[in-house]
Amino acid sequence: MTKGLRGALVVYDPEDPLKDLYDVDDVNTIWQVGDCLPSFEGWLEQRPRWHNTTIPLLAGYVATGIVPVSDSGTFNGIGRFQGGPEVPFHVVNVVQGKRYRFRIINTSARNVFTISVDSHNLTIIETDGNPTSPMTVNSIDMLAGQRYSVVVAANQPVDNYWINAPFVGGDPSRNLNQNATLSRAILRYQGAPAADPAAPMSLGPAGAELNALVEANLRPLVAAAAPEPDINITLNLVVIPPADSIFQTAGKAQWNVNNVSYLAPHTPTLVKILEGANSANDFNVTENTFILPANKIVQVIFPPSIDDEAHPFHLHANNFWLIKSNSSEEINTANPIKRDVAGVGSTGTIMRFSTANPGPWFFHCHIFWHFFAGLATVMASGLDDIRKEVHPTLQWDLECPLYDILPTDLQ
């Protein structure tokens, strides 16, 4: 959904406690899966097109309230769509006998990708930057914004193998040209011919062969109990159909958290804090800001909802203990994993985080369309500490005047 360039920022840990499990971890072992969306006109006419930008898609969303459905998926920026040119699939080169750490990132605006590699297992060793106890599976569902590191052993005969990355996201009947099976890449052993795999394209392991990741079964590398909470917050997610929305003249659906739909303020939240804001009353209601004391443990409860879709909620600048995953009814306070994006929705989710890191941290759905429709909050922690630690420069002071003189359509 970006208009321009994007890529992965990887901070390599020279003391990685799991480095003995793999031989290769470099720029060539980064996998980014994403979505390719049609133009608004093509989407309405069910004639998807390959290239697009955010603005016309948002215009279509505002005009109809209908979330666009992607044509296809991309793997490291490359992909095919139904009826389009047969561009070469991305190729991941490996050497037989070596073990590879693949860092997988779901960069999509909406889609849930299911990652697998024909004839190979995936050993998970990290979730969203947090080391985990190694767990071997052969299929991983990834929500938008989530990251996993997996170790893949190149232990099969020299050949070409499909890397499968099919996806779901929205009603495919709204894009009749969609073919999720085309979302894939090739794992190519050194010595194999430069050709597509002989095996037919599939959605990955199924039936008795399927050993899919269950998020609730993941454990941290070092077992540790989650701290008891000092503060409890319940967040209810509700969608208001266009007819009941403040956007009803435009037809756009509105998403609420606790009956508030987030709107970015004209004056940034951080600026308000630096200027002395101390309570929720100092912010716009539509900023949906929670004021939290420093150095406390906050428990956030997302109750079960009637929406079957898992909304990937992302907390900026913090990792949370995932006490209850949306994938299970189990409540685990003894040794939960930590991550920063987790699905919330049908069965309910519980997480805890520390407010030791001061700042106004965005907490939002990573589905672009839902975020745009207001599915977000701000967790503002340690306001006094923010004012002690943040010292604006002259350039900072010039930002608002420079912004204010911009034409309205650029603000």
Automatic annotation (TrEMBL):
<keyword id="KW-0560">Oxidoreductase</keyword>
<dbReference type="InterPro" id="IPR033138">
    <property type="entry name" value="Cu_oxidase_CS"/>
</dbReference>
<feature type="domain" description="Plastocyanin-like">
    <location>
        <begin position="263"/>
        <end position="380"/>
    </location>
</feature>
<dbReference type="InterPro" id="IPR045087">
    <property type="entry name" value="Cu-oxidase_fam"/>
</dbReference>
<dbReference type="InterPro" id="IPR002355">
    <property type="entry name" value="Cu_oxidase_Cu_BS"/>
</dbReference>
<dbReference type="GO" id="GO:0005507">
    <property type="term" value="F:copper ion binding"/>
</dbReference>
<dbReference type="Pfam" id="PF07731">
    <property type="entry name" value="Cu-oxidase_2"/>
</dbReference>
<dbReference type="GO" id="GO:0016491">
    <property type="term" value="F:oxidoreductase activity"/>
</dbReference>
<comment type="similarity">
    <text>Belongs to the multicopper oxidase family.</text>
</comment>
<keyword id="KW-0479">Metal-binding</keyword>
<dbReference type="InterPro" id="IPR011706">
    <property type="entry name" value="Cu-oxidase_C"/>
</dbReference>
<feature type="domain" description="Plastocyanin-like">
    <location>
        <begin position="63"/>
        <end position="192"/>
    </location>
</feature>
<protein>
    <recommendedName>
        <fullName>Laccase</fullName>
    </recommendedName>
</protein>
<dbReference type="InterPro" id="IPR001117">
    <property type="entry name" value="Cu-oxidase_2nd"/>
</dbReference>
<dbReference type="InterPro" id="IPR008972">
    <property type="entry name" value="Cupredoxin"/>
</dbReference>
<dbReference type="Pfam" id="PF00394">
    <property type="entry name" value="Cu-oxidase"/>
</dbReference>
